[in-house]
Amino acid sequence: MKKKLFSAFVLTVFLCAAGRSQQFTEDDRFALTAGIEFKLIQNIPVFNLDSAVLIDPDQNFRAVYELQDGFGFGGVIRMRLSRVWNLETGLHYTRRRYRFEINDLQTSFSDETHFRVVGYEIPLKGLVYIQLGDDLYMNVALGASANFFASDVIGLQNIYNIKGFKPSWVRLGVMGNVGVEYRTRKDGYFYLGASWHQMVGEIMRTEVNYFREGSPPAFRQRDILDGTYFAIDFRYFINPTVKKKKPKVNRVIPDWKNM
Q1: The CATH number of the domain where 91 resides is what?
Q2: What are phi and psi of 58, to 5 degrees?
Q3: Does residue 111 lie within any of the structural domains?
């Protein structure tokens, strides 16, 4: 429910920005710019991101895993199509870090470990922006992303392990971001904002195996890993290159009769 409210908020801001951007006075010629992006993935408790509690059917053990943090970086390409619409794409590397805790409900054993999920994103977003000041702009973007994950995940300890298996080699996601951009004439554009990446379906299926005192049989539980995240974004763009309009050439038609 909270994820839907956040998505609705981004959509509302996007539509409002699209309406107000009609007042933007910059030349609407096609422009192309490129930049770099760095994002800090955060676990906001209010959204309860990727948190799961696992208890095996016979209640022998309890396991908890949750998204702890992560980061991402990559390149961004922005194309200005008109004074209203812009298009953004790029290629990003992401690494999510999860905290995993296990407790034996029959003994006093407990332990904690971490595992990481590495992925790559190819986003495609529509973007609009409004001018807040001489050099300050607010922009909002909505779009989708193709997500590729490098490999399956396995974490091995002495008496338990956690495994993650990819159900497919690519997963789709819906994403949006809101931010503020400071533009300079010589040094490029500087951006600070926040983004939300909502996965469509799970990115992995997890399996936890616990061997009490290190001996079989294993107590087992399964669940899914969603992969949705919230991030703080930092970007830098070089100054855009603008396709200049060709000047009109006035043709002079000679007056052959009076020559």
Answers
A1: 2.40.160.20
A2: -90, 5
A3: yes
Give per-residue pLDDT as tens, 109-135. Answer: 899 999 999 999 999 999 998 889 889
Strand partners, 20: none
| pLDDT tens digits, 168-218 | 889 999 999 999 999 998 899 999 999 999 999 889 999 999 998 878 888
Evaluate if pTM is beyond 0.70. yes
CA distance 55 to 104: 10
Does residue 256 lie in a domain region? no
- Is residue 254 one of the residues assigned to a domain? no
Number of domains composing the chain: 1
- The residue segments making up the domain with residue 179 are 2-243
Other CB atoms within 10 Å distance of the CB of residue 92: 19
SS3 content of the chain, % helix, strand, coil (to 5): 10, 60, 30
Residue 243 has phi, psi (to 5 degrees) of -75, 110
Q: Is residue 170 part of a domain?
A: yes
Tokens of 55: 């208890």
Whole-angstrom Cα distance, residue 100 to residue 111? Answer: 8
Which residue in this structure is represented by tokens 């379906």?
201
User: Interior CA angle at 73 toward 35 and 197, to 5°?
Assistant: 105
